[in-house]
Design goal:
Layout: H1 5-10, H2 36-43
């Protein structure tokens, strides 16, 4: 049986930064993998 699409998206785990493990707020048009803090460190 197929899962309801809404239920599928509700059960996905929160996005997590691979560098520091901090949970990230998902943004519709963002493909970034790292959190803002880790990206800022990388630019320095």
């Amino acid at each position: 049986m197929l899962m309801n699409p809404v239920e599928f998206f509700r059960t996905l785990p929160k996005k997590e930064c691979p560098e520091c493990g901090q949970h990230m707020e998902e943004q519709a048009e963002s493909y970034l993998m790292e959190c803002d803090r880790c990206l800022a460190k990388r630019e320095e």
